[in-house]
């Protein structure tokens, strides 16, 4: 055991000994059930002229201690910030002061006293009573180095929130962003609904699902990868505007932009098309930015990004021509397309067609250039199994993806409502699954039945909420905007 480890163990042992002494004195802090708090730190500091001389009751965690002899200063941290507390022996009594001196950084206390300003001009509370509410049996990271290790920060978010106050602000902002999304849609007449998270068919997206087993029914079930097909069923049933925001689950790789469990929103509007969804997307994002940040012009990791509508628009084929130098208006066969793919270093997969090549070239050559908000439209039908075909060119669909900072943050289309076409596309997806693509769509016969009952012309939209929050809060990793991101368990053997 190293000196540092031995020293830490001794400090942890000492904290437990202090707790035992308090219990022997009949002052077990863990028996206290509640404490009346009249004010928080921020309110006292922001309204000092009004609060000076007033008696307050505050509570929080001890973050620092200084002073010797018969007077001390401590900083306590509550949910809104920090405030200094002045503790003097002749105000709380010698016995209480001796007990107070045993309190550690990390302990949670209640303080009653008078608001005043010190000679150095710091707004403080002059304690007349101090109560230990919770004894911290662990050691907080020391103040100058803090909790910097990202892996430890994500595993122990509760400590991260204590010692890195800016982290709390990110999650407060996250809450404001989500509230603003709902507010925008509610004001537009959309109805928020709930659909199943546990599905018998993983549908609505090209993704690998998490699989579980229902014992009573003796069937495999899937955590949802999207909520699209259930929301469309509601449009069939007569709702004109619906949305759902919640957790999605995809059993795929992890990166700074991907977490297996993430938040997304999908919405559907009857008698609307993908053009309507474009307008809604740019207006919604601008509304949310204005509500949460007070501006539509943001700085993300040193890049100035203007979210003000209207956004740039470009078809996928135009983007491939511009950034990959390939003009698909002159390439009409799969053979020609596959030849170009080989020349461009694209991996050839079984069943690959002209449409797949266009999509691969776009991802390889174009995405990295889409920093400013841009709508990429008219995806090939092969990669858009749920989108309506373009009436002028049935090889493409009336679909778009919205990109900001080179990331896809939204996906939308005029929904395919032809049950015959949809069945054929499901069959094509099944062939891709049989060829080894475990992200290809499953056959959903009940959804086909719903389409046969009749889905009106409909526009649909999905937005990756976590990625949008990353951009609006200037965070470089999705783990920085998810309170408890997925982590590999620590081996404590």
UniProtKB/TrEMBL annotation:
| Residues given in the record as Mg(2+) 2 binding sites | 408
The annotation note on the cofactor reads: Binds 3 Mg(2+) ions per subunit.
Sorted alphabetically, which keywords does the UniProt record give?
Aminoacyl-tRNA synthetase, ATP-binding, Cytoplasm, Ligase, Magnesium, Metal-binding, Nucleotide-binding, Protein biosynthesis
- Required cofactor names: Mg(2+)
EC number in record: 6.1.1.6
- Enumerate the InterPro entries for this protein: Aa-tRNA-synt_II (IPR004364), aa-tRNA-synth_II (IPR006195), aa-tRNA-synth_II/BPL/LPL (IPR045864), Lys-tRNA-ligase_II (IPR002313), Lys-tRNA-ligase_II_bac/euk (IPR034762), Lys-tRNA-ligase_II_N (IPR044136), Lys-tRNA-synth_II_C (IPR018149), NA-bd_OB-fold (IPR012340)
- What cellular-component terms does GO give this entry? cytosol
Q: Which residues form the signal peptide?
A: none
- Protein biosynthesis keyword on record: yes
Give the chief site where it resides: cytoplasm
Instruction: Report the Pfam families cross-referenced here.
Output: tRNA-synt_2, tRNA_anti-codon
Q: Which GO terms describe its molecular function?
A: ATP binding; catalytic activity, acting on a protein; lysine-tRNA ligase activity; magnesium ion binding; transferase activity; tRNA binding
Which reactions appear under catalytic activity for this entry? tRNA(Lys) + L-lysine + ATP = L-lysyl-tRNA(Lys) + AMP + diphosphate
Residues annotated as binding Mg(2+) 1: 401, 408
Question: In this protein, which residues make up the domain named Aminoacyl-transfer RNA synthetases class-II family profile?
Answer: 171-489
Q: List localization entries.
A: Cytoplasm
Asked if the record carries the keyword Metal-binding, the reply is yes
Question: Which leading EC class covers this enzyme?
Answer: ligase
GO biological process, alphabetically ordered: lysyl-tRNA aminoacylation
Subunit composition and interactions = Homodimer.
Similarity comment text for this entry: Belongs to the class-II aminoacyl-tRNA synthetase family.
In Swiss-Prot or TrEMBL terms, this protein is called Lysine--tRNA ligase
Species assigned in the record: Caloranaerobacter azorensis H53214
Taxonomic lineage from the root: Bacteria, Bacillati, Bacillota, Tissierellia, Tissierellales
Per the record, the gene is lysS
């Amino acid at each position: 055991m190293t000196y540092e480890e031995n020293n830490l163990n001794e400090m942890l042992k000492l904290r437990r000994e202090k707790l035992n002494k308090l219990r022997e004195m009949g002052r077990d802090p863990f028996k206290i059930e509640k404490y009346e708090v009249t004010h928080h730190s921020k309110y006292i500091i922001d309204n000092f002229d009004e609060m000076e001389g007033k008696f307050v009751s505050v509570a929080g965690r001890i973050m620092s201690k200084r002073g010797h002899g018969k007077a001390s200063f401590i900083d306590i941290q509550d949910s809104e910030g920090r405030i200094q507390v002045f503790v003097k022996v002749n105000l709380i009594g010698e016995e209480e002061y001796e007990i107070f001196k045993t309190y550690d950084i990390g302990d949670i206390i209640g303080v009653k006293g008078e608001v005043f300003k010190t000679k150095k001009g710091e707004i403080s509370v002059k304690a007349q009573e101090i109560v230990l509410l919770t004894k911290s049996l662990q050691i907080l990271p020391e103040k100058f180095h803090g909790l910097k290790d990202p892996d430890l920060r994500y595993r122990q978010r509760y400590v991260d929130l204590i010692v890195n106050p800016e982290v709390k602000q990110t999650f407060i902002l996250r809450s404001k962003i989500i509230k603003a999304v709902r507010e925008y849609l509610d004001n537009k007449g959309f109805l928020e609904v709930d659909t199943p998270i546990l599905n018998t068919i993983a549908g609505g997206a090209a993704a690998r699902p998490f699989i579980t087993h229902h014992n009573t029914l003796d069937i495999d079930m899937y955590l949802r990868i999207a909520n699209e097909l259930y929301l469309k069923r509601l449009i069939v049933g007569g709702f004109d505007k619906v949305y759902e925001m919640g957790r999605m689950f995809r059993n795929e790789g992890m990166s700074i932009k991907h977490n297996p469990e993430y938040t997304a929103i999908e919405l559907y509007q009857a008698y609307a098309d993908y053009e309507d969804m474009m307008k809604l997307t740019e207006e919604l994002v601008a509304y949310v930015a204005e509500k949460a940040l007070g501006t539509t012009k943001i700085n993300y990791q040193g890049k100035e990004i203007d979210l003000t509508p209207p956004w740039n628009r470009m078809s996928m084929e135009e983007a491939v021509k511009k950034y990959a130098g390939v003009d698909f208006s002159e390439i009409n066969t799969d053979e020609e397309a596959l030849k170009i793919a080989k020349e461009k270093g694209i991996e050839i997969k079984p069943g690959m067609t002209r449409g797949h090549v266009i999509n691969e070239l776009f991802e390889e050559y174009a995405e990295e250039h889409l920093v400013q908000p841009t709508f990429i439209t008219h995806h090939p039908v092969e990669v858009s199994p749920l989108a309506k075909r373009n009436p002028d060119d049935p090889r493409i669909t009336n679909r778009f993806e919205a990109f900001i900072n080179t990331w896809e943050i939204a996906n939308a289309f005029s929904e395919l409502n032809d049950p015959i076409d949809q069945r054929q596309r499901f069959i094509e997806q099944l062939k891709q699954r049989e060829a080894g693509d475990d992200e290809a769509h499953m056959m959903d016969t009940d959804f086909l039945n719903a389409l046969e009952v009749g889905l009106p012309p409909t526009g649909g939209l999905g937005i990756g909420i976590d990625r949008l929050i990353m951009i609006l809060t200037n965070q470089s990793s999705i783990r920085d905007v998810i309170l408890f991101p997925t982590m590999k368990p620590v081996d404590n053997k």
